Description:
Elements: H1 2-27, H2 48-51, E1 61-62, E2 71-74, H3 82-86, E3 91-99, E4 105-112, H4 118-126, E5 130-132, E6 134-136, E7 139-141, E8 143-151
Amino acid sequence: MKNSWTWLILAAGLCLAALSARTFATSWQVKPVAVPRFQDSAPPQTNPEKLLEPPQDEWPLRVTGAVTRPVFLDGAKPYYFKRPFEARVQGKVIAEATIDEQGRVADVRVLKGLPMGMDVAAVEAMKTWRFKPATLNGKAVRVYYTLTVDFNLPR
């Protein structure tokens, strides 16, 4: 008796599924769409050296491949606030920043911070740093770059 109920419920479910699929299929109308025709001409010639030129006024690049990394020149050390120093807080602040074509740090975003305002101190110090700019084919370019500040207590 139990098996017959199972088959009955299964058959009813299949019928409902078939009816709903049929209703769904007939409720949509397919309209033809005009496809644009291409000209019968050769594709435009591209200059391979043009492809390697740095993009103008676009997003910063990642330091990979032909893009050289920026080189740190100088800048302020981060300030160790009194409360974190007394609480013996130490560690690393990791941030992603944009280094522009002049080697200045801009748009700093903290990826891993420290408590008690130490990440703020690190960001303020990073904004004073100067770099030799990253280059692509000898031209200075803006890049995303990961910066790290170590806060270590003296022993």
